[in-house]
Amino acid sequence: MLHEFTLSNGKAMINYTLKYCDTKQKLLNSHGFKRVIESFIKEVLKKDEIVIYNFYIEDLGSEEQLINSLIEVFKLLTVFNIEEVLEVDNKYSIFFKDKDLFIEITELLLAYWKRLERYAIVHSNRISDGLQSVRFIQANGMFNDLILATARRIQETVNEHPTRIYRQSTAGANAGLTLNDITWNCPVEYKGLASIPFISKVVIQPPFISYTKKNTRDGIFHEHNQNPLSNIILNEDEWFVFPVKVGNMLTFVYFHRDFMVHGIGLSNLFEIATEDEYIGKKPDIIYVFGYPDGEKEKRTFYYKDKKNDILIGYANHCDDIDYFGYMKKMLLTLHNIKQIENKRLPIHGAMVNIVLKNGTESNIIIMGDSGAGKSESLEAFRTLNENYIRHMRVIFDDMGYIVKEEDGTIKGYGTEIGAFVRIDDLDPAYAYEQMDRGIFTNPDKINARVTIPISTYEVISKGYKVDIMLYANNYAESEKKIVFYDDLEKVIEIFEAGARKAKGTTTEKGLVKSYFANPFGPVQEKSKTEVLVRSYFKDMQDAGVKIGEIHTSLAIEGKSKVGPHEAAEELFSLIN
Questions:
Q1: Are the CB atoms for 331 and 339 separated by under 8 Å?
Q2: Which residue has the higher pLDDT, 260 or 568?
Q3: What percentage of the chain exceeds 90 in pLDDT?
Q4: What is the C-alpha separation between 374 and 136, in angstroms, rounded?
Q5: Is the pTM of this model over 0.70?
Q6: Domain span at residue 192?
Q7: Positive or negative, the Cα torsion across 421, 427, 428, 432?
Q8: Beta-bridge partners for 347
Q9: pLDDT (tens digit, 9 = 90+) per residue, 36-48?
Q10: Helices (H) and strands (E) in the chain, counts
Q11: 3-state secondary structure at position 204
């Protein structure tokens, strides 16, 4: 990041490396503060508070005078009382004719600042050590305190009495990033990406709440016949790269600063790669998210770079991709295509390792497309914990893959350490418990989401033998919630049909079907997946894996909450 401060599209970027404000005067004299005042007057006073705006403009004469006078009076009020400020220049008397109005301005300004997504950046030429990380966390805390202290000092001076109630809200950065310049094994086709600094550490200040322009994802990702990254050059001041592990795939995710919340969201969803895992290395996957190619229409696709053995994902800069689903699902599509090439079968679903109170242990996969009830079933397992479960590990919550090991055992592995879940489908108490670590998006909208860490990389990458394989049926009434089948052809027909009733997590409506309930790889590579499905399901049946359906009733009116609980209780009774 080349500038000390930038503000665009509701996102403020504060570069601590170029300028760090540790006093009130540094803060109020900074370019960043002036930029915020300019934006505040334009976006708040002129649009929503025109009476306040006109009151000051009539006296000061112009918007530029209002900007400069506000900054100057704020600086003076941190040092002098009102009488002393007027002795400096009587033109500031306009701010004290109606003290309540001036206090309202300070409150509106602070509220506007806190509505912005605020990111702090530290850019180092070398890999930072532990002490630097600690100092970065301390710097974030000190900056937060400085903003609150400055606002309080100004208000106390105008009110002429001290503050009596202190609300220690988050007024500094919502999140902080440490960036390092890294050399990786960059093929010549991608030299335009080589200068972008790598994110090495992330600091999140909860609660982290953001609002995005979209709240659902639409369509599937298709293969492109040309490399979208050939000859593009990314601007170091606008781009970041997050090195993450999607399953066992090293992935470089490049994202534009206008989509920072989606980049930050990766820290709760995937394991960040360590420096020795990517310095001098070539990634399995590269995803460029938010490239301004001049097209207004959404362009999301992937390309197989067979020469360099890298899968490329691409999403152009437009409002339609401003939803975390476009970040997450493209990465999972790329991962799954790679796994299919390696003769591994991707599973769109959830897998848990459960140890019951009587000592019985079982590894259960519940497969289904978005809204089928896989995450809701996990939530039902979690809420029934006290009655049945001694211990539960989540291997994957949305996407995983199964592998036939050398000894013939079928094992399941996860792709993510976190979950991107609908808040409405969580127990309210559990949702509130995530306030200190979740990343919330559009919490008051339909399909409100929270991204939370739920497992560790050690757990998802260990490999667990599959004992039960269930398809999540969210639409059919059934007296028995768990039904197992011996007929392999019938089982494969059910799983490959991928039927579900849409629940509003995408733009689909009604009863819909998606091949193998997985539009993120198997749909694109259907012929290869069909071979794998028959091979893996035959091997699972031969190994004694119980295969069938779990009726979650999630799309049946009045049963969206009780259905998963009833199914979970029946499942526990069967394996008890």
A1: no
A2: 260
A3: 74
A4: 39
A5: yes
A6: 181-341
A7: negative
A8: 400
A9: 999 999 999 999 9
A10: 18, 27
A11: strand
